[in-house]
Amino acid sequence: MKSLQADILHGDCLNVLRRFPDEKFDLVVTSPPYADRRTNTYGGIKPERYVEWFLPRAGEFKRVLKKTGSFVLNIKEKVESGERHTYVLDLILALREQGWLWTEEYVWHKRNCHPGKWPNRFRDAWERCLHFTREHHFKMNQEAVMVPMGDWKEKRLRSLGKNDIIRFNSQVGSGFGKNIANWKDRDLAFPSNVLHFATECGNKKHSAAFPKALPEWFIKLFTDPGDWVLDPFAGSGTTCVVAQELGRNSVGIDKIEEYIELARREVIENPISMFEKPSKYNGRSKKTL
Ligand SMILES: C[S@@+](CC[C@H](N)C(=O)[O-])C[C@H]1O[C@@H](n2cnc3c(N)ncnc32)[C@H](O)[C@@H]1O
After folding, report:
1. Is it the case that residue 201 has pLDDT exceeding 80?
2. With CB atoms counted within 10 Å of each terminal CB, which end of the chain scores lower, N or C?
3. What does the pLDDT look like over 135-156, one tens digit per residue?
4. For residue 42, how far is its CA from the centre of ligand 1 (angstroms)?
5. Residue 81 DSSP code
6. Are the CB atoms for 211 and 218 separated by under 8 Å?
7. Is the pLDDT of residue 232 over 60?
8. Domains in the chain, CATH or no CATH each
9. Protein residue whose Cα sits closest to atom 27 of ligand 1
10. 108, pLDDT greater than 90
11. Is 254 close to ligand 1, i.e. is its CB under 6 Å away?
12. When comparing pLDDT for 111 and 204, which is higher?
């Protein structure tokens, strides 16, 4: 059986990725530094320079991504002088010009977002997970992320109307239709594009780590066991840890040495969970790293 790899590499992802061949990866899933005026943060990229900074890196992500692959970008614009900055919107347009398809936008709803009071808005409880692809046809394992039907099933499917037992085409001319009766005897449904994950606070030594559930959902959806996952802004290595747990190969890159050490400890020296939940690993044995 082929062994899995999990490499944590130090440097600017722009330079590190130049060592990789074209079309190596099946999925790029990442949360880059958000635009920030504070030069002492690990990003320190000013909002008005963000697109210019991001594009050459995105060019490398595109080169190393397979044609059937996906690029998931977790990002959120900040408030500046009382209004949302538009740099994420500008980035989406620039990425499309670079040749990416803006295939979907998933909303990460932060279930445990802390309460607060602001004069002109409410607490910010969501972030974008922008889904870009190279082609219209890409790998997508929809069954891998199905969810329980939920309580609505009993009420909605108890008495079906005449438009529920036939394929009922959308009345807004979208070309889509649905047959509600098809779902009557099923326990699982496809999820929506709103993902409800709690933020994880606590044990990590990285201030901006995302919860494991986030890369886990996209890795299951867009890759198969043995595929290659890249996180070019790896931080504490969350993506690589999850990739490892799910039996995928991974590469994580970060420009800060301290995070590299943290990620290497998480990914390579702490593969304990692989033994704790063997069913998650799709029958693969412990890999050599
Ligand atoms: C939002 S954090 C990622 C956190 C990560 N998702 C986790 O769960 O720990 C962004 C990371 O990008 C890194 N970074 C910033 N610029 C970089 C660059 N040019 N190349 C590689 N890493 C970079 C920062 O050091 C930081 O750790």
Report:
1. no
2. N
3. 999 999 999 999 998 776 667 7
4. 7
5. T
6. no
7. yes
8. 6-146+190-276 (3.40.50.150), 151-189 (no CATH)
9. 235
10. yes
11. yes
12. 111
Ligand 1: does its nearest atom lie under 6 Å from the Cβ of 127?
Answer: no
> CB of 257 closer than 6 A to ligand 1?
no
**Mean pLDDT over each residue of the chain, to the nearest integer:** 87
Distance of CA 266 from the midpoint of ligand 1 (Å): 15
Query: Among candidates 143, 146, 69, which has minimal Cα distance to 101?
Result: 69
With contact defined as beta carbons under 8 Å apart, do 94 and 62 qualify? no
Atom of ligand 1 nearest to the CA of 210: 8
Q: Which residues of 26-53 are buried (b: 16+ CB within 10 A; e: fewer)?
A: bbbbbbbbbbbeeeeebbebebeebbeb
With a 6 Å cutoff on the Cβ, whether 69 touches ligand 1 is no
Ligand 1 neighbourhood includes 74 CB (under 6 angstroms): no
Spatial separation of the C-alpha atoms in residues 32 and 75, rounded to whole Å: 7
Q: 108: Cβ–Cβ under 8 A, 6 or more apart, which residues?
A: 74, 126, 127, 128, 129, 195, 197, 214
For residue 247, give both structure tokens: 């039996």
